[in-house]
Structure formats: structure tokens, C-alpha cells
Write a structure and sequence with these properties.
Layout lengths: L2 H15 L4 H12 L4 H6 L7 H39 L18 H15 L3 E2 L5 E3 H4 L19 E2 L1 H4 L10 E3 L5 H9 L4 E10 L10 E11 L4 H16 L5 E6 L4 E10 L16 E10 L1 H6 L8 E8 H9 L12 H4 L5
Helix pairs in contact: 1-4, 2-4, 5-11
Bound molecules: phenylalanine (PHE).
């Protein structure tokens, strides 16, 4: 046997003795028999020998390779057997309670949205929906939000590249936006249904806003009631009935005059603080009231845009943020917590 091959075998066995993992075993195999392995390299030596010695060297090289391969194989079996023994030796305590698979729950926002819907369904409302990508006409024009209204400003609205979805609505060249509120569902509903109309429309809305209390994606719920003889008193009564069902107590409802182009008169509405019953606490900043959203009597022009006779019918609408409502209910300090998907947060809201 060539001294070169003999040295390789000796070295190999020495290295093999300290191999304790399958990965290390594989590395050793590569180091000796891989493409650039040391034994593989010796094969090249054969060409340098005088022709008479080549045959013997070739045979010795083959034996060397076979011996190394066989040793690797044996060692692999030994390692496997050792791993199996370790596994079997592990003590299994059958009296331990089993590991419980984690159980998911509904997102706190979903819980609030469902509870809100249930409440309004009990009060006789249907749930209506609309698309997130909306035409400017329904999101703005038909709601009396004129072309020069600041709400259309790039600073508030996400505009959607019209070409990007033109294929979805052939021939429709309207500017498209991510709806900035759920109010376009009012338009969609009034255009397709005849009074009496009594709907709520919970859904996702988008504005270019981002801080502790604003997120570019947020959620609103819209309410709309159209019939003959509907008045602001009906709105107030409905909101009071809502508080009773939703918060389990009848809360004060306060209107503060405000302006929204699609209602007249318009108001912002506050509810008596459900946490201190109006006495004043941190959550209501010691005012006794919590700001909830906007509302008012549907503007006659809006009714007419939708083909509803504004001489015969009147109605009211309201809209408020579901995220804010959820934060308030659970005293969540930062809006972003709700959209990060961190299970440490979500686990706190089992349902
Ligand atoms: N759409 C208004 C907003 O997003 C809320 C609103 C709805 C106001 C219905 C009045 C009537 O701020």
C-alpha cells in the first residue's frame, strides 16, 4: 500500500473517533471523499507513476475508498442507535397535564363590530356593505363634498391609480379613492332601495393620517334611517336606545352643532361617560362626556342625488369610529397596538 494512502487512512480513523453528530460525519466524508477531498486528490497521483505501478496504486486507492466508506456507514449506524437510546431513556411522566394547543379568539375590533351590529339589528336595522375602493362620486360628490372641498385634499385621501383597476369597470373613468368614510354606503343604499330605509354599515376606511389616535386604515360604522316624518328626535332616541343595549345603561346623548356637507343640521354627538356615569374620570377627561362621532339630518340635496323625493321623505345619518370605541371599552392606550398582530396583546381579549 502506498504510504500516502496509508497515512490518509490513519488520519481518517483518528478524526472519525471524535465525530459525535451526523453533520460532522458528513463534513468528514466530504473532506476525504468529496470532489475536493484529500483521498480524491490522491487519485491524480496515479498518472505520475511509472505504468507498471499504476495498477497496484489504483487497486489500493479503491480499497482505501471502500474502507473509508464502510467506516462512515458503521459510524452513522452507531450515531443513530445512540440517538434512539437517548430518546427512549427520556422519562415521560404520563400524569402531567397535556400541553394545550393555543386557542385563537376574535380580534377586539371584530368583537366590537359584531356587538355593534347585533345591537342595531335588534333595533331593526339591516347591515349594508360597500367596496373599499370607491368612486369619487359616491365618496364625495353625491355627499355634497364639492371638487374644491378640503376633504379631497391629497393630505387626507388615498387616490387609486384609475388605470390600475379600469379593467374592473369597463368604460368607467371615475377617479377612484380608498373610501375615506363609510358614508358612501348611504349613497349606495339610497340609490338601490326605497324608503323606509334603516341600515348600518360597518367597515374599513382609509385616510392619510398616522399618530397615537389615527391610523391610515381605520373602521367606522354608519347609520341611516329614511322615512316619512323622520326627525332629529328619532336620532336621539335611537342613540339612547343604542347606549342602553350596548353599554347596559342608558347614557346621556349630547349633540353639539357641527358641519358635515351631507347633513343639515349637522352635529357631533357625545355620550355620557359609561365609566363614571358622568361624574368625571380620566377617560372622559373629567368632562362627563365622551366624543363619539358625527350625525345630522340627511341633506335634501343628498336625497335628491339618490332619486329620493326630499319633499316627502326625511332621514338622519350618523357615523363613528369603531377603533375609538374599542380603545375606550378596553382602555387601550395606542391605536397601533390593534393593528400589529402581537399575540401578547391579542391574548388579552378572549371571547
Ligand atoms: N362621515 C363622517 C366622518 O367620517 C361622519 C358622519 C356620518 C357625519 C354621518 C354625519 C353623518 O367624519
Amino acid at each position: 500500500m502506498s504510504p500516502l494512502l496509508a497515512a490518509q487512512i490513519q488520519q481518517f480513523h483518528a478524526a472519525l473517533a471524535s465525530v459525535t453528530s451526523e453533520e460532522a460525519l458528513y463534513e468528514l466524508q466530504v473532506a476525504y471523499l468529496g470532489k475536493k477531498g484529500s483521498v480524491t486528490a490522491l487519485k491524480g497521483e496515479m498518472g505520475k507513476l511509472p505504468p507498471a505501478e499504476r495498477k497496484d496504486f489504483g487497486a489500493a486507492w479503491n480499497r482505501t475508498r471502500d474502507e473509508i466508506e464502510a467506516a462512515l456507514e458503521r459510524h452513522r449506524d452507531v450515531l443513530k442507535a445512540r440517538a434512539r437510546d437517548l430518546d427512549l431513556a427520556r422519562v415521560v411522566d404520563l400524569s402531567m397535564p397535556p400541553l394545550r394547543p393555543p386557542v385563537g379568539s376574535l380580534h377586539p375590533l371584530t368583537q366590537t363590530r359584531r356587538r355593534l351590529s347585533e345591537t342595531f339589528i335588534r333595533l331593526g336595522f339591516d347591515v349594508a356593505v360597500g367596496p373599499h375602493v370607491e368612486g369619487e362620486q359616491f365618496n364625495f360628490d353625491d355627499l355634497n363634498i364639492g371638487k374644491d372641498h378640503p376633504a379631497r385634499d391629497m393630505a387626507d385621501t388615498f387616490f387609486v391609480e384609475p388605470a390600475a383597476i379600469r379593467g374592473l369597470a369597463p368604460g368607467d373613468v371615475q377617479e377612484l379613492v380608498l373610501r375615506t368614510h363609510t358614508s358612501p354606503v348611504q349613497i349606495r343604499t339610497m340609490r338601490t332601495r326605497k324608503p323606509p330605509i334603516r341600515i348600518i354599515a360597518p367597515g374599513t376606511t382609509f385616510r392619510r393620517d398616522d399618530d397615537a389616535t389615527h391610523s391610515p386604515m381605520f373602521h367606522q360604522i354608519e347609520g341611516l334611517y329614511i322615512d316619512e316624518g323622520v326627525s332629529l328626535a328619532d336620532l336621539k332616541a335611537t342613540l339612547m336606545a343604542f347606549t342602553e343595549d350596548f353599554f347596559g345603561q342608558r347614557l346621556a346623548v349630547r349633540f353639539r352643532p357641527s358641519f358635515f356637507p351631507f347633513v343639515e343640521p349637522g352635529a357631533e354627538f357625545d355620550l355620557g361617560c359609561p365609566f363614571c356615569s358622568g361624574r368625571g374620570c380620566n377617560l372622559c377627561k373629567h368632562t362627563g362626556y365622551i366624543e363619539i362621532g358625527g350625525c345630522g339630518m340627511v341633506h335634501p340635496g343628498v336625497l335628491e342625488h339618490c332619486g329620493i323625493d326630499s319633499e316627502r321623505y326625511t332621514g338622519w345619518a350618523f357615523g363613528f369610529g369603531i377603533d375609538r370605541m374599542t380603545m375606550m371599552l378596553h382602555q387601550i392606550p395606542h391605536l397601533r397596538l390593534m393593528f400589529e398582530g402581537d399575540t401578547r396583546f391579542l391574548e388579552q381579549f378572549p371571547c
